[in-house]
Write a structure and sequence with these properties.
The protein is of the alpha/beta class and 445 residues long. It has helices at 3-14, 22-25, 52-55, 64-76, 89-101, 115-132, 153-158, 194-209, 235-245, 298-305, 321-336, 339-358, 394-405, 426-444; strands at 31-35, 38-41, 46-49, 106-112, 140-144, 175-178, 214-219, 249-253, 277-280, 292-297, 364-369, 374-378, 407-408, 410-412, 415-418. The strands form three sheets. A seven-stranded mixed β-sheet has the order 4-10-9-8-7-5-6, with helices on both faces. Strands 1-2-3-13 form a four-stranded mixed β-sheet.
C-alpha cells in the first residue's frame, strides 16, 4: 500500500470534508509539503498550486517568518478575549495598520476567523446601522448570481451559486440576487453599456423590494469562485450612485481580491469607488492562520458609538492575538515584496501566455482576468457561446487531466480558474500554461 493509499483509508474512515463527496475522496491527493508555488503529495510528486490553496496562500508556502510570528505570539500571549472591556496590543496594532492601508473612509475594524463569518458580520452591522438610525425595516440583502460570500446560513443565502443551496434550504428570508456584470455573457439593451445596464439591475431590484426595506448590496469587486468575472469599468461607479440614491450600504467583499490580488491593494481602487463596509480574509494571513474581518466607514462607526447599547454580535476568536500577529507580519511581506505590482505584472504574463497557447482553440470561449486572477471558459460553440451540457462534465475532466499533469486548481462548471501565489516564477507560469493547454487538448481534441 502506498503512503497515499494508507492515509486515504484513514481519512475516509474519520473525516468529513467541505463539499463532501466520498467517491471523489477515494482518489484524492494528500498534501504533505509546500514551498513557494509548489505542493508535494504523500507519494513525493510535485504540483504547481494554481489557486494558492483556496485563493489565500498569496505569500506562498513555507514562509518561516509567518510560522515564527505565530510561535512568538503564542509563547507570549496565545489568547485573550476580544469582547468590549478587553483588548491586546496586536489587535490594536493591526487595526491601526489597516486604517492606514484601507479606503480613506474606513478606519474601524472587527476581526473574525474567516470570510463567511465576515459576511455574517457585515449583514448584522448593516441591519444594526439602519435600526440605530431609526429605519428598522431596512433589513434586506441584495447580492449577485455567481457571487460567493461563504456558506454559513446567512452567507450562503447571499451566495449566488445555487448548487450550495438545495440540501440546506430554505434560505434565510430577505435575500435576493441580480445578474452578474459578465462582459462575456451579459446582454445589455441596445444603446446602453454593459456596465451601466448590469448596475441598473440593482436599481430595479431595490425598487422591486422597496427602498425602505433594503439594507445593503454585497459584491465581490471581481467575482472569484463564480468564474473570475471582471466587471466593465463603468459598473461600480454606477453601483455607488444607486446605493447613495436609495440609502443602501455598499459592501465590498474583498476576501479574495484584497491585499494585492488584482494589481491594486484593494480592488475597488481600480474604479475610484469606496464602500461603506469592506470584508476581508484569506490573504491577510496568507492562509497561515484562519483570520478575517470587516472594516466599516466612519458614518457606520459613529452610529455604533452613539447607540448607548451594545452591538450584540459576539465572537470568541475576534481579535485573536496570534491571528493578529500573523496578519501584521503578512502585511509587511505584502508591502516589502510589492504584491500589487507583482500581481499586475505576473497577471499580464499569465494572460498573455494563455492567449498564445489557447486563443485559437475552437472550444476556448473566453480568456479573462484582473491581476493575478484569471480564468479560461470552455464552450461547445464559440460563435454562439453555447455551453457544453452539464452532464458532459467537461470542466471536471479538464481539472482531472491538469491534476494528472501536475497542476492543482478548481473549476466553476466549465471555467478553469487560476490565482497562484504571488511568488510564482515566470518559469512556473510558463509550465502552468503548458499543462492547462495539454489538459484542454487531451479532453477536447
Amino acid at each position: 500500500m502506498t503512503a497515499t493509499a494508507d492515509l486515504l483509508t484513514r481519512d475516509i474512515a474519520h473525516l468529513i470534508h467541505p463539499l463532501h463527496e466520498e467517491p471523489l475522496q477515494r482518489n484524492a491527493r494528500v498534501w504533505v509539503k509546500g514551498d513557494g508555488a509548489i505542493l508535494t503529495d504523500a507519494d513525493g510528486r510535485e504540483y504547481i498550486d494554481g489557486l494558492a490553496g483556496l485563493w489565500n496562500v498569496t505569500a506562498g508556502h513555507g514562509r518561516t517568518e509567518l510560522a515564527e510570528a505565530m510561535r512568538e505570539q503564542a509563547a507570549e500571549l496565545a489568547y485573550v478575549s476580544g469582547y468590549a472591556g478587553s483588548s491586546n496590543p496586536r489587535a490594536i496594532e493591526l487595526a491601526e495598520r489597516l486604517s492606514a492601508l484601507c479606503y480613506r473612509s474606513i478606519n474601524r475594524f472587527f476581526f473574525t476567523s474567516g470570510g463567511g463569518e465576515a459576511t455574517d458580520s457585515s449583514i448584522k452591522m448593516a441591519r444594526a446601522y439602519w435600526k440605530l438610525r431609526g429605519r428598522p425595516n431596512k433589513t434586506k440583502v441584495i447580492s449577485r448570481i455567481n457571487g460567493y460570500h461563504g456558506v454559513t446560513l446567512a452567507a450562503m443565502s447571499a451566495t449566488g451559486l445555487s448548487r450550495y443551496w438545495p440540501l440546506f434550504e430554505p434560505l434565510v428570508p430577505g435575500f435576493s440576487h441580480i445578474p452578474a456584470p459578465d462582459p462575456y455573457r451579459y446582454e445589455a439593451p441596445p444603446g446602453e453599456s454593459q456596465g451601466v445596464a448590469a448596475a441598473n439591475e440593482l436599481e430595479r431590484a431595490i425598487l422591486r423590494e422597496g427602498a425602505d426595506t433594503v439594507a445593503m448590496f454585497i459584491a465581490e469587486p471581481v467575482q472569484g469562485a463564480g468564474g473570475v468575472i471582471v466587471p466593465p469599468d463603468d459598473y461600480f461607479p454606477r453601483i455607488r450612485e444607486i446605493c447613495d440614491r436609495y440609502d443602501v450600504l455598499l459592501v465590498a467583499d474583498e476576501v479574495i481580491t484584497g491585499f494585492g490580488r488584482t494589481g491594486r491593494l484593494f480592488a475597488l481602487e481600480h474604479w475610484g469607488v469606496e464602500p461603506d463596509i469592506m470584508q476581508f480574509a484569506k490573504a491577510i494571513t496568507s492562509g497561515y492562520f484562519p483570520f478575517g474581518g470587516i472594516g466599516i466607514s466612519d458614518r457606520v462607526a459613529e452610529a455604533l458609538d452613539e447607540a448607548g447599547e451594545p452591538w450584540m454580535h459576539a465572537y470568541t476568536y475576534s481579535a485573536h492575538p496570534v491571528g493578529c500577529a500573523v496578519a501584521l507580519r503578512t502585511l509587511r511581506i505584502i508591502e516589502d515584496e510589492r504584491f500589487p505590482e507583482q500581481a499586475a505584472a505576473k497577471g499580464d504574463e499569465l494572460l498573455a501566455r494563455l492567449e498564445i497557447a489557447l486563443a485559437d482553440h475552437p472550444h476556448v470561449g473566453n480568456i479573462r482576468g484582473k491581476g493575478l486572477m484569471c480564468a479560461v471558459e470552455l464552450v461547445e460553440d464559440r460563435a454562439t457561446k453555447r455551453s457544453f451540457p452539464a452532464d458532459h462534465g467537461i470542466g471536471t475532466a479538464v481539472l482531472r487531466a491538469a491534476l494528472d499533469r501536475g497542476l492543482v486548481s478548481r473549476v466553476k462548471a466549465d471555467t478553469y480558474v487560476l490565482a497562484p501565489p504571488m511568488v510564482i516564477t515566470s518559469a512556473q507560469i510558463e509550465r502552468l500554461v503548458q499543462i492547462l493547454a495539454e489538459a484542454i487538448r487531451a479532453v477536447l481534441d
